[in-house]
Structures are given as C-alpha cells and as structure tokens.
Design brief:
Strand content: 5-15%
Shape: globular
Low-confidence stretches: 1-5
Mean pLDDT: 90
GO cellular component, one term: plasma membrane
InterPro entries: GP_PDE_dom, PLC-like_Pdiesterase_TIM-brl
Number of helices: 11
Distance between the termini: 36 Å
Helix content: 40-55%
Protein name: GP-PDE domain-containing protein
Number of strands: 9
Radius of gyration: 21 Å
Largest sheet: 9 strands, mixed
Keywords: Membrane, Transmembrane, Transmembrane helix
Oligomer: single chain
Family: Belongs to the glycerophosphoryl diester phosphodiesterase family.
Length: 331
C-alpha cells in the first residue's frame, strides 16, 4: 500500500500541475491518474521475513553487519571470477555482488563492462563473442594479483551461482541492461536453485530491469541501485558533458530521477532495499527508508574508518572492493 506521508508528495504534484495549467480539474485528474496507476500496477514487497533472510542473514556476530564483496571483491582477486568468490568467502564476506552479461550465443556470464578489454587479455564486446571464445581468455587481465590467479576463466552464471551456494554466500545479482534476457536467465537459476529465494537479491540502476524481474517472478527479492547526479556526472564527480547547457538539463533530469526513486519507483517495483552511493547516506536517510520497510545498503565502502562507521553508527550492510585493506573505489 502507499505509505503514510505520501499524501504530501501527491499534494505537491497537484499544486505543481495546478500552477502550470491553472486548472483545478486538470490538476486533480493528473494527480488521481498517477495514484491509480501506482495502485493498479505496483508490485507488493516480498514478505519482510524473506527480505530479512537475504539482507540480514543469520550467523552474524551480534555487533556485525553484512559485508558484500563488490564484483566478488575486485581488489583482492580478479573481479567476477570463481577465484574472487572463494577469496571473498575466505576473507569473511557474507555476500558477493556479481555482474551479469551475455555472450553472442546468449549464455549468461559474469562481466561488468560491455567489453572484455579491461578485465581479460582479450578485446571486443562481450555480446560479439561466443562462450567458447570467451573461455579462451585469461580473466586475470591487468589485475594487480594477476600472477597469483593466472589462468582464471570468465565463469558462467550457473558456475558462479553454484560456487556461492557452496560457500553459503548471499548473491547480489547486478543487472545493467537487457531486462528480458536477464529475467529469463535469473528465472532459470531460481527454478534450479530455490534456495536463492532466501539468499539472493536482484539489483539494478534501471527500474525497468527490476519491474521486469518482478513481473517474471514476484517472489524474488529486489533492490534499486541509485547515485544522485548520475546522469550529469561520472562516479568520480567529473561532468559527463563539456557543455554547460547540457549539464544543466542533465542536472534537472537528475533531480526528477532522484525524486522518482524516493517517492515513486521504489513503490511501483516493490523493492526491499535501495543500494545507495555512500556519500548520500546518513542516519536520517536510513530512517527514511526504514519507515517504508526498505533496507539501505551502502556502496562502495573501502576504508577501515568508513567500515567502522557503518558497523557502529549506521548499522547497515555495505559493499566493498576489499575485505583485506583500504583501497581506491572501482568505478
């Protein structure tokens, strides 16, 4: 259902439309249409106890919080590999975040980038390579510990899921695009491994991906990933465009997108968590989402000081590139 307090935002929409159209009837119609749309097409959140099993797994120390290895811990081992999953488990992670990609022959594999250039010794777009071709590449790429893990291959989604289950790791499936393919591939995993319903979550920056996943299987725990100003700026804060005018309008879209995430999209998709960039998280922010039954997970937390803050003050889960030492963020 819509949360107490949402009437404030519908009132704001009403006033904004009223100001723009000078028509009380038109403003009422638009506001009512938005409300009816949400009520009719939204997905309810999965049961709270199921979401809690995924986001607050049992077995943690009394003062501990869940720690998720970003790209399976891309600083400690070659990212998105079986070796990284094993290393994350060995280093005490409660979960791993894995990136989903697809080969030319439709096989689901672990890959963050659109190309294999950065993470392997090969070149080319993932979507133009067949699985057999991808298997010939060394997934250690230019990793700082490449010699230690030399010969590691790009794993399939199936291989990665089985490895995570063996290590009892929570899986954060990160989906960049291709919602239909992703929903089908992940749906197959949930069908083969029902344990995933209580030990995994599907995440994406793209609301359409999450909505499609909920359509395919309403029983899957999901999360929206968000970073304010992501349309106008890169992860390191650099403007995406050299044009001041373009950046201005991208900034306007950023404001609208941020509002939509916090007041509309989470409700429409029925997510159980929001994965937020660490610079925008505070105790008030955590409380805002707690009132809506949504967990906050911070990313990417790469220093001992920040990790202590998350454990002792915020008391929420976080995603990190390394479980062993401080490191720079991997964008």
């Amino acid at each position: 259902m819509l949360q107490i307090g949402d009437e404030v935002y519908f009132s704001a929409v009403f006033l904004l439309v009223l100001f723009g159209t000078r028509s009380a009837i038109g403003a009422s119609a638009v506001t009512a249409s938005i409300y009816v749309f949400i009520v009719m097409f939204r997905f309810p959140q999965v049961p709270a106890d199921q979401a809690s099993q995924v986001l607050r797994p049992t077995g943690l120390a009394s003062a501990g919080v869940p720690v998720v290895a970003h790209r399976a811990g891309g600083h400690d081992a070659p990212e998105n590999t079986i070796a990284a999953i094993r290393e994350a488990s060995r280093n005490g992670a409660t979960g791993v975040e894995l990136d989903l990609g697809f080969t030319a022959d439709g096989e689901a594999v672990l890959m963050h980038d659109e190309t294999v250039d950065r993470t392997t010794n090969g070149t080319g777009a993932v979507g133009t390579l067949r699985l057999a071709e991808l298997r010939t590449l060394d997934a250690t790429g230019k990793h700082r510990l490449g010699e230690k893990f030399k010969g590691e291959k790009v794993p399939t989604l199936q291989e990665a899921v089985e490895e995570c289950i063996n290590h009892q790791l929570t899986i954060f499936f990160d989906v960049k695009d291709q919602p239909d393919k992703a929903a089908a591939a992940l749906g197959e995993m949930y069908h083969k491994h029902p344990v995933l319903y209580n030990s995994s979550i599907v995440c994406s920056f793209q609301p359409k991906v999450i909505y499609k996943m909920r359509q395919a299987d309403p029983g899957v725990v999901t999360a929206l990933t968000h970073r304010p100003w992501s349309l106008s700026r890169y992860g390191d804060g650099t403007p995406r465009s050299l044009s001041a005018w373009t950046n201005y309008w991208l900034g306007v879209l950023d404001v609208l997108l941020d509002w939509a995430h916090h007041h509309l999209l989470w409700n429409l998709c029925g997510v159980s968590a929001i994965l937020m960039q660490k610079d925008f998280i505070s105790l008030d922010y955590v409380q805002y989402w707690a009132e809506r039954g949504v967990e906050v997970v911070g990313w990417t937390i790469n220093t001992a000081v920040d990790k202590q803050y998350y454990q002792d003050v915020l008391k929420i889960s976080y995603i990190t590139d390394s479980l062993r030492e401080d490191c720079e963020p991997h964008y």
